[in-house]
Amino acid sequence: MKFEDEVGRRRTFAIISHPDAGKTTLTEKLLLYARAIHLAGSVKAKRASRGTISDWMKIEQERGISVTSSVLQFNYEGSALNLLDTPGHADFSEDTFRTLAAVDSAIMLMDHAKGVEPRTLKLFEVCRMRKLPVATFMNKLDRYGLEPLELIDQVRDTLNIDVAPVNWPLGMGDDFKGVVDLRTREIIVYEGDDRRGSEMTTSRRVPFDEAEELIGSKAFERVSEELELIQHAGDVYDHDRFLAGEVSPLFWGSAMSNFGVEELLQFIARNATAPGPRLTEDGEEILPTEPRFTGFVFKIQANMNPRHRDGIAFMRVVSGKFERGMDAVIGRSGEVLRLSKPHTFMAQERSLVDEAWPGDIVGLYNTGKLRVGDTLAFGGAMKFAGIPRFAPEHFGQLRLEDPMKRKALDNGLEQLAQEGVIQLFFSPGQGRQSPFLGAVGILQFEVLKERLKNEYKVSVQFVKASFSHARWVSGPPEALEWLRTTHGYALVEDRNGLPVVLTDSGWNLNYALDNAKDLVLHEVEPL
Ligand code: G4P
Q1: If both were cysteines, with which of 123, 324, 343, 503 could 16 make a disulfide (CB 3.0 to 4.6 Å apart)?
Q2: Which domain holds residue 371?
Q3: From the CB of 117, is ligand 1 less than 6 Å away?
Q4: Ligand 1: does its nearest atom lie under 6 Å from the Cβ of 258?
């Protein structure tokens, strides 16, 4: 296959959702329909018995959850799909956001009984920042939920994005029979009594008029009215506007019972974005089809094997063809790295990879030379624009159990912060002493404690701080002075010396904006 075709058939995407919307279930069903697995139920089973099958971090084994995002690669209809997992439960962390820096599109998954939930909103904001195309899947139609039209209004108003239904539900709960394909006005009826859909469900298309027989005349009348309404009021799907992140095509279904999964998969394979260009630090655009291999690291998984203490750096290929054993230069340090044991991830299995194309994710063994945001390039150093950091929501400080270990602690903190495990904030005038730690997800602190103990032989206690909000600050000196002198705010510095305000409520942030003239607060680190 020609290089351009390899690039063009790749779809690198993530599923964004609030916990329990059904991400694991949908992931598994996408794999089922792409025939990458034969029986659904295995991903969950693996999650539960992880301790026996995986050598990932101890903490991960103890809790039976995944600390870090994994990558799944599978084929469908000639497209090569890379699905990047975004950790969502207690394992929600900055990695979840960083993963979105490595994808070209996203599926926004919602429980139709709940609509837009806080985590969905946050992750969607990151997608918007990157102008990513986002397709929406309303899940759990086999249960009762909000009225479809109401739900569309909610998504449109809360997320401030146009929504274009691609299909429409025929009933819900026990009466959920299928969906209407709005492009052809045919009904897709799903068959089979297996409500958990461990195997693929068959579906058939019938003309819309036959719906009356299926769902009864009352429900039919209502659906007909809804269709009439959305035809006049709703946004229509426009491919260019989807690619620009301006309109979200909307699908309805039930991941558990397989309804609507195949249509979504087909849509992603056919319509989601192929790998695009990426900007360098100097603003130069690197096209995926450029022959020179380049890539960047978006996530580091440490200690996958506690005996060897090595880790895996997840790299997204940006341009050129990646080949096993090639030498690449790390942009930040200028060091040459032989990429000798790259891994790919096929439906939960890790295996060695010989070659990879733009859009693909490669797992590289990392002995500590690579950091989040690093660029790797063949034949000379270069740097892509960095991955921004996101405002933490959990804060605390460390208490050292053995005061003699101060130096080891400082050293460990510095390195782990550079790796992106946590963020450090320093109080002015106190040097690097007793920094505040900040994390997007609470589990990051446990990962930090564990790693300080294993890798730096330092035992610490974590003391929670009362802050709950952080914002990077810009504006005139008077505005910063206001923050410095007003009760309820701590003005600190991040590792790069940028001013950051810590406070304990969103109300305080608004109060500061109202009172400190020309103050600007940034939820994402200004680059
Ligand atoms: P997550 O990864 O987003 O957190 O969600 P996950 O897939 O684990 O699903 C959360 C719960 O929602 C699970 O139930 C799952 O079975 C259920 N679920 C997912 N999709 C659907 C759907 O289309 N319809 C219905 N009715 N339920 C769905 P659970 O009780 O937590 O687990 P389990 O006992 O069912 O495995």
Answers
A1: 123
A2: 278-377
A3: no
A4: no
pLDDT in tens, 154-174: 999 999 999 999 999 998 898
Residue 522 bridge partners (DSSP): 472
| Pair (165, 73) in one structural domain | yes
For ligand 1, atom 5, the nearest C-alpha belongs to 22
| pLDDT averaged over every residue in the chain | 87
The residue to mutate among 16, 18, 20, having the most atoms of ligand 1 within 8 angstroms of its beta carbon, is: 20
* 18 within ligand 1 shell (Cβ under 6 A): no
Lookup: tokens for 194: 């297996």
Domain-embedded: residue 130: yes
Q: What's the pLDDT band for 304 if we cut at 50, 70, 90?
A: very low
Domain boundary among 237, 271, 305: 271
pLDDT tens per residue across span 429-486? 887 788 999 999 888 898 899 889 988 999 999 999 999 999 999 999 999 999 999 9
Let me know whether 263 and 299 are in one domain.
no
Any atom of ligand 1 within 6 Å of the Cβ of 142: yes
pLDDT digits (tens, 9 = 90+) for 328-349: 999 999 999 999 878 766 544 5
Total domains in the fold of the chain: 3
Residue for token pair 């790797």: 376
Q: Please tell me which residue, 272 or 193, carries the higher pLDDT value.
A: 272
pLDDT tens track for 239-256: 999 999 999 999 999 999
* 440 alpha carbon – ligand 1 mean position (Å): 25
Q: Does 415 lie in the same domain as 372?
A: no
H or E segment and range at residue 454? helix 443-456
Give pLDDT, residue 303.
58
Closest alpha carbon to 384 in 525, 285, 287, 279: 279
Asked if residue 339 lies in contact with residue 328, where contact means CB atoms within 8 angstroms, the answer is yes
Atom number, ligand 1, closest to the C-alpha of residue 17: 3
